[in-house]
Design brief:
By secondary structure, the protein is mainly beta. 5% of the residues lie in helices and 21% in strands.
Length: 389
């Protein structure tokens, strides 16, 4: 018959008490102490390798994959080897730093350093040394995507093979023969090589005019952004600035509707199609209630700090300034929180590894017993029963 000795009974009693005291070491949720702070993060499903809380759980300190405790990084299990650019796949394995001219940056993804190209570029030759060398918008050998080759002599224009309507192919480029001074009326016909001649005004140069291409003909015409709306070209030249004239916006006689403005030759801020829209200079027509560059008023920029994930240069930002109802706030990337409610330091907390804000702002692990946070969960493990048979 099996017996449990008296000393074993005492050990069992001590273990039960310890587990009972530690049953609340892994809180699952806590209210946001900073409501309205702009935090949009919702705790995601934790890694499958992290034990789910159940009865009789004690503090665990062994890091579940992909989390690790790396030298020089504060805290326990605070490094995610799947996405940390300084510790990618293993502690100390840093991805190449940002380098100008390669049209991209290296990021750690699933424990491997990968080159992410800027928009409109691609790493089509597979050599990381020259970065994202292909210009996908204009490269006929890689038009739009790597390996998409246009037909012989066919140009690539804005990522599409061939020229759109109104354009003609000239020396591998798409141009407008009606207005291109370097290809006026025909490919290679450069207006700068033509003698201006006496012209319609007997050699005089009317104000705001230039020798350029118009209607596929080289001659003395209005300069870009100007027009002769009173039909007195030799008198006052091109007197109307159609770039910002509300009565002649973009062309003579094209009047903007009441409440609109004319900018860059276009009528903006239509009171019907853009209700509440406000013209803010270079920003064009914008909504002051939602534009982070013009929040509440033109020029009020919700700059804030945009710290990169993990604080490493070249990493994606942990959040971005936002404008809500005309007031500056902050929108956090998944897994990050603006726990202090301040805009100037952005989403300063990594909710996946911070034991003081584990999974949500204010959700604190058992700091006294060194309980780490990994995957947005306070680490736990089954308690040792301590039974001796």
């Amino acid at each position: 018959m099996k017996r449990i000795v008296f000393g074993s009974i005492l050990s069992l009693f001590a273990a039960v008490v310890a587990c009972a005291n530690s049953a609340s070491l892994g809180p699952e949720s806590a209210p946001d102490p900073n409501p309205g702070s702009g935090q949009t993060f919702e705790p995601s499903t934790p890694d499958a390798s992290i034990d789910d809380p159940s009865q009789h759980l004690c503090v665990a300190t062994d890091c579940p994959a992909p989390y690790a405790t790396c030298p020089g990084v504060p805290g326990v299990c605070t490094t995610n080897l799947d996405k940390d650019s300084l510790h990618c796949g293993s502690c100390g394995n840093a991805c190449p730093p940002y380098t100008s001219g390669i049209n991209g940056s290296f990021f750690c993804m699933k424990g491997t350093c990968q080159l992410i190209c800027e928009e409109g570029t691609g790493d089509c030759n597979g050599f990381v040394d020259d970065g994202c060398e292909a210009k996908l918008l204009f490269d006929p050998a890689n038009c739009g995507t790597c390996g998409t080759q246009c037909a012989a002599g066919e140009p690539c224009f804005q990522g599409q093979c061939g020229c759109p309507k109104g354009y003609s192919a000239c020396n591998g480029e798409c141009v407008r023969l009606s207005t291109d001074s370097a290809n006026c009326g025909a490919c290679g016909h450069d207006c700068s090589e033509d003698a201006p001649g006496a012209g319609a005004c007997g050699g005089a140069v009317p104000p705001n005019s230039a020798f350029n291409c118009k209607d596929s003909q080289c001659g003395q015409h209005c300069a870009s952004g100007f027009a002769d709306c009173n039909n007195d070209f030799c008198g006052d030249g091109c007197e109307t600035r159609v770039a910002n004239d509300k009565l002649n916006c973009g062309a003579c006689g094209n009047a903007c509707a009441p409440g609109q403005v004319c900018a860059a030759g276009k009528c903006l801020c239509d009171p019907v199609t853009d209700p509440g829209g406000t013209y803010c200079g270079g920003s064009g027509c914008t909504d002051l209630q939602t534009d982070p560059n013009n929040c509440g008023a033109c020029g009020n920029d919700c700059k804030g700090l945009i710290p990169p994930v993990g604080g490493y240069a070249g990493s994606p930002p942990s959040g971005a300034p936002a404008c809500v109802l005309g007031r500056c706030t902050y929108e956090c990337a998944a897994g990050y929180g603006n726990c202090d409610g301040r805009i100037d330091n952005g989403c300063e907390i990594d909710l996946m590894v911070d034991p003081r804000n584990c999974g949500a702002c204010g959700n604190q692990c058992d700091l006294a017993n060194g309980q780490p946070c990994a995957g947005g969960k306070c680490l736990t493990k089954p308690c040792d029963a301590g039974v001796v048979q």
